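Hi L.,

You mentioned the student needs an example of a multi-chain input paired with its predicted structure. This one should do, with 916 residues in total across all chains.
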Amino acid sequence: MATEDILAPLASTPPQETFVLNLGPQHPATHGVLRVKMTMDGEYIVRAEPVCGYIHRMQEKMGENRSYAQFLPNTSRIDYLSALTYTHAFVGAVERAARIQVPPRAEYIRVVASELNRISSHLVWWGAFLLDLGGFTPLLYAFDDREKILDLLEGITGARLTYSYFRIGGLYNDVDDEFIKGTRAFVAHMRPRLKMYKDLVTDNVILRKRLIEIGPISQELCRLYGATGPVIRGSGVPYDVRKVEPYSAYPEFDFEIPTLPEGDSMARYLVRMAEMVQSLRIIEQALDKLPAGPVMAEKVPRVLKLPAGDFCYAVEAARGRFMVRIVSDNKEIPYRVKLRTPCLSNLSLFEEASRGMLLPDALALMGSLDLVIPDIDR
Amino acid sequence: MTQTLTKVLTTEPFRLALSLVAIMAFVGLNAAYLVWVERKGAARFQRRPGPNEVGPAGLLQPIADAIKLLSKQLIVPAGVDRTLFRLAPLAVMAPALASLAVIPFSESLAARNINVGLLMIFAFGSINVMALMVGGWSSRNKYAIISSARVVSQNVAYEIPMLLVVITMIMVTGTMNLSEIVNQQAGAFWNWNLFKVWVNPLMPVTFLIFFICMLAETNRAPFDMAEAESELVAGAYTEYSGMGFGVFFMAEYANILLGCSLATVLFLGGWQRPIGILPGVFWFLLKMYLLIFSVVWIRWTFPRTQFYGLLNLSWKILIPVSLFTLVLSSAMMKLL
Amino acid sequence: MKNVFVEIYYGVKSLFVGMAITLRQFFKPIVTVQYPHQTLKIPARFRGHIELVSDPETGKPKCFVCKLCERACPSDCITVEGIKPEGAKRKTVTTYRLDFTKCSLCGSCVEACRDNVIRFSREYNLASTKKEDYIMDLFKRLEAQRLEIEKSEGDSTGSASVLAGHGPAAPASAEPSTRAPIQVEPPKPQAPRVQALTVEAK
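Structure written out for the whole complex:
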């Protein structure tokens, strides 16, 4: 049914017959601290207004008070589930501005680590989404696989969630053989697991009834609000920063951008599952072609001053396009660090997309948008 | 002395009292330990240990939970309907206890051998729905009211296919007396009602429909709208604390117990033994616990259906199919 | 009409396939490492809080108070003080205080230090009820480590190698810390079976 058909009877509902239901900042679902004020008519949503800002930590203000190397740990904490991709954007912006040449081995390892991070972020999304929908078991299977990724990354970086691994000019330290062997074993382990997830969940008739044709988002809506990532790829636009504005070592790898035209929640779900498979492909190719050499650029000044001007760098994070814009006035400390995060744009279309939907369907839509609230509030 | 004692002990009132006490003990123990089975089962499906600190393999965990619930204050919020609020947990527990009086646990272990036992069970089952609605409505809480409205429509929708299936079984067996139904399934295991395909060719489908309806009637996943945490807060039980909530919980497990024992009696031969060893009551309990394990297994495998998906399943699929099996089995019985 | 039955068939089949998968998982061993009874092996590059490295000959910390770590820290956790004794070329450190309540384990200090004077420890078991326990005096820690080395002189692998520092570019085969090495203890007889902790290739 088109939204207009559903809304037509509701349009005549007098305001006093609707009530306000508050999906409060404390959620049983695992989105984070997001408040959604929903005006409801029975089970139908008349208006859903997201209220964010409960976890605003002034990351951009901190960027104005710290030098470039000192701001690095902050980048991991903006979206802690795909922390390395965010660090990549910031470090890439600084390197682009200071014209630092990163050695190829470092670029390849950055790609491997970022893709592992993308898989672990999608696994958390998958588990949490199914938790919203009422299936409790797949969460634990996803976390079991994610533990393996976290152990691999802990072996090289020393941290499990907020890695401060990339440095301006390269990496903190090199990878060892154990990591390469472990990653290859993980790729071999993960492929059958993805098949198991497909049999257990994706093909399940209950899940399909819940997701197919639920929460349709058109291409125009995505463009209007600037939604990127699996949201726009699930609506038929093959927009992926790794292909559209290639960065780092991505041009050397052969991978596809999964795109589906339907625009419903199932399309976004399938896009993310397919992205995990593509990430495994990229990791395999990167490990095969890993060049030898140093992992840190030479002559990176300890006290880094960027030339005056405006510099930006965009990456494809797990949730969409993340861009860092640095405005510098030739000092050690940037004048402005702007973080363009994907989840804020993705959330903005929720209000328009959820009009006239039933409550469980709206929650399925919100889960399929894959929101991480610290990313929205920064 | 022993003579008079035996005479007194075998009189009908004493036997009735003893069986009622036995049923309450059975239900109480099961309700507590089914929680343990569910938590351990859920844990093993998710490859984690489950409760294992309290007592060996966590067997004292339900007792710890019971003590915790008993020690909490029974908060009655201001503005609720006082009588109904306190009545609802009792009204949820009582039908399950009463219905177990007619289930034959073995040849001699049936509290009451009533001729219309099956009818009695379903009559009491409707009280269950009403009690849940009363509990949600008297809580004076937006979420509870929405949830209890959903529960009522879900339970009403699923009672119909369940009753249609039961009518099919009554036609097949010719009696509503549960002990008689079990007696008819004597012999080898292919005499069980589940395998009597010459009377009703769609008998496995009938069993499946009964099982699905039983899941929906007891508000178990994938049909657990009443307790769906992630949509609304806690559904119909939001305002209950301490042992009030504990009684709702126990009543849910008592209903599962009742549903699975009814399925065993109707379809799987009750206490009939496939192999000639071990007493009948053991086989009854084995079959019943296997069905309960399936209920737990289903809960931890599937996501929840939407509310309208639930109702669509009942009205658009289960009712036509059960009507069809009813007509089919009556035709087969007439022809053969 | 036929589509309806095909749909129902595939729908019901998917339910049974899903149940078979969870049943198979039911019979596999648990993956939980039951923490107080069993522990995990900490990798060599684990980031615990920082600790001072002492000079193998003199036993004193190598730090000479250049304060690069203090300046590099984004959270102002480190306080270093030192005095210059008579006739010495460099300062020696008198106070090295780490406020671990603010530390984000970013590693800027370890990286900024040019002479590998500080390194990451491998402490993870840091629960406490007092905030003062987290204002760490790294001097005291160094002393405690030295005493422990002297106590267990016989069975350590050699004090020099144990106390030598390693910085960010260390090889993977770094020496373990001076505490008893943390490893997986064999499970108690009644503990459930635990899956191997390495990633197995399927």
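You could point out the following to them. Residues 94 and 168 of chain A are 7 Å apart (CA to CA). The longest strand of chain A covers residues 309-317.

Best wishes,
N.
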